[in-house]
C-alpha cells in the first residue's frame, strides 16, 4: 500500500535503499581518523596527535557547488563524473591556502530519488575524495518534489583541511621577482557554464558531434571533470617550496591571481606561454566572444597557478617533471603598475 508521503512524492524506502548502497563506497575513502560511520546525527573525525602536532594548528574550510554544469549532466543523463567536480571545487580552494585536506561532506537535493542515480553520483564524489586526499564522512540527501522537477538535482559540498599558521600560503608571502607556474586544466572545469549553454543554444551546437580538434563528442568534452591538484601540489607545500597558490575558477587568471598578490605588486602574465585548448577556441568562435571576456570567464587551460621564488624554481620544476605534471612558466610578479594582474600582449 502506497503511503500518503509517497503519494506526495517522497519515497522513504528508496532513500533507505540509497543510503544502504552507498555505505560501502563511502567507507573506502575513510582514513584512520574517521570515527563510526554513516548513520549518526553528525560525522566524527578525530584530530590525532599526528595531525595537531603543529605550533599553531589552523582549520581551513571551503564550500561550493557545481553550478549549471549540472544541467548538461542531467540533459545527457551522465552522472558519473559530476561528483568529482563537486569535490574539486571545494578541495582545490582549501589546498590553495596550504592545507592538508582532511574530510568532506556533501549535500544532494533531488526531485525524485532514484537509488541507481544516487549511487552513480556518490561514486563520483568518492572518486574525487580519493583524488583529493579527503575522507567522505557524511552528508545529506533530500527528496524535494516541488522544489526540483523529477529528474533535476543539485549538489553542494564542504571540505575541511588543516595547516600550521606559519605555513599558510597567500599574499603575505608573495615577493617581487616571484615566478608563476601554471598547471594545466582538464578543460572548462566547472565555471562559466551559463555562458557555455548560451553559446550552445545560440550557435545550435550539436552536443553529440566530434568537432574539429576534439577527440570526443562535445558533451563529453564539456563534462570532463575538474582536475584535482592535491597529489601534484601538496608535496610542494610540505617541502615549503611555494609562496602562494591560485585556483583558477570564475573570474579567470586575473581575478583569482589578484587574490594572491599584495597591493604593492602586480602579476604579469604572458598569454602566449601556453596553448589554449581547442574547446575554448570552439566556444569563442561559435559564440563570437571577445578575448577579454573569455579571459574573465574561463580558465583557458590553466587550472592552478603556483607562485614560486626564483631560488626554489628549479626544485619545483624537477618535482613536477618527476610527477609528469604538465606545467608552463606563465609570468612573474613585479612592482605594481595600474592593475593587480596584467596580460603582456
UniProtKB/TrEMBL annotation:
It holds the Pfam family AIRS_C. Its EC number is 6.3.3.1. GO terms for biological process: 'de novo' IMP biosynthetic process; adenine biosynthetic process. GO terms for cellular component: cytosol. One of its GO terms (molecular function) is phosphoribosylamine-glycine ligase activity. Keywords: ATP-binding, Cytoplasm, Ligase, Nucleotide-binding, Purine biosynthesis. CDD domains: PurM. It is found in: Cytoplasm. Pathway: Purine metabolism; IMP biosynthesis via de novo pathway; 5-amino-1-(5-phospho-D-ribosyl)imidazole from N(2)-formyl-N(1)-(5-phospho-D-ribosyl)glycinamide: step 2/2. Its main location: cytoplasm. Residues 58-163 form the PurM-like N-terminal domain. It catalyses: 2-formamido-N(1)-(5-O-phospho-beta-D-ribosyl)acetamidine + ATP = 5-amino-1-(5-phospho-beta-D-ribosyl)imidazole + ADP + phosphate + H(+). It comes from the Bacteria. Residues 175-339 form the PurM-like C-terminal domain. Belongs to the AIR synthase family. This is Phosphoribosylformylglycinamidine cyclo-ligase. It comes from Secundilactobacillus mixtipabuli. The lineage of its organism: Bacteria, Bacillati, Bacillota, Bacilli, Lactobacillales.
